[in-house]
Amino acid sequence: IMGKPLFFYCLPCISLAMLSLKCVEGEKGKNGNDAQKLFSKIKREAHGLFIKDGIVSASLVFFLLLWLLGIFYTCISNIKPLILLYNPRIWDKELMLADTFLLGGFDWCDWLSRFHSPFLNRIMNMFYLSLFPMFGITMAILLLMRDTVSMRRLVLCLMVLTLIGNLWHFLMPSLGDVYIHPERYRDINGVYVKTIQKFLYMKQREIIISQDTFHTAPFIGIAAIPSLHIAKFLVYILIIKKYSKLLLGGYIVTFLGLFFST
């Protein structure tokens, strides 16, 4: 389904390899030739890693949720680029007018675009891309805390808000200020995010022009509203806030940077 089946084969193999290495290292120098004791230790380690008190442990839940989320986003990514085939009207003009009206006639995007500089662009690029490693960090924290309930809640929230966001995009397709007013964003050429934007736009056009022959790939699609980038990071904050005020502070600072970069 992903076009990269090795991804799904590698996860269980890596888990098994790490488990085996841990068991063997624990027996090295003591009973290296005692196969029965080594086998017993493997059983104990496996029970602690995957099964505890009759329920699936956090480690297995972690890998299953990543697999589920990968399948889900693959499906969404193969639908999202085709939305303009069914609803070709672009609502950017009306949405920008509504945005300006809500801000009392102030064009937020135009004002922010005047502050582009090489240094600021690099900082904003880093904050914008932080959404992806912060997901891994959040899941890793929940795994270390063995909080399977929050792991499930995080993944479920991401799936639900993605479905709602794409339904909104289906009703009111929009590309975003960076595509409608490219003259405002000439100064961000060379930044990695700009490269991604060009790639997404080219692939979107390619899919629409030759949808019968072109096969879409994961994470392709353009939607300006609602901003799932911001919504997803807010989910991270809501999930992680109960653990540490210091941790929450770091998430909030990163979110503010991501908000302005978006």
Give the arrangement of secondary structure elements.
Elements (H helix, E strand, L loop, with lengths): L5 H22 L7 H16 E2 L2 E2 L1 H22 L3 H4 L5 H11 L5 H5 L5 H12 L1 H14 L3 H24 L5 H4 L11 H18 L18 H13 L4 H17 L1
Helix pairs in contact: 1-2, 3-9, 7-13, 8-12, 9-12, 12-13
Brief descriptors of the model:
single chain, 262 residues, mainly alpha, two-stranded antiparallel ribbon, 13 helices, 2% strand, globular, disordered N terminus
User: Which parts are unreliable, with pLDDT below 50 for 5 consecutive residues or more?
Assistant: 1-9
The neighbouring-strand order within the major sheet is 1-2
Helix/strand order, N-terminal first: HHEEHHHHHHHHHHH
What structural class should be given to the helix and strand makeup? mainly alpha
Write down the Rg: 23 Å
Helix content: 55-70%
Q: For the terminal residues, how far apart are their CA atoms?
A: 31 Å
The major pleated sheet works out as: 2 strands, antiparallel
Task: Please explain how this structure is put together.
The chain is an all-alpha fold and 262 residues long. The protein has helices spanning 6-27, 35-50, 58-79, 83-86, 92-102, 108-112, 118-129, 131-144, 148-171, 177-180, 192-209, 228-240, 245-261, and strands at residues 51-52, 55-56. It has a two-stranded antiparallel ribbon with strand order 1-2. A hairpin with a 2-residue loop joins strand 1 (51-52) and strand 2. Helix 3 (58-79) runs parallel beside helix 9 and helix 8 runs parallel beside helix 12. It is globular and about 70 Å long. 14% of the residues are buried. Mean pLDDT is 78; it is low at 1-9.
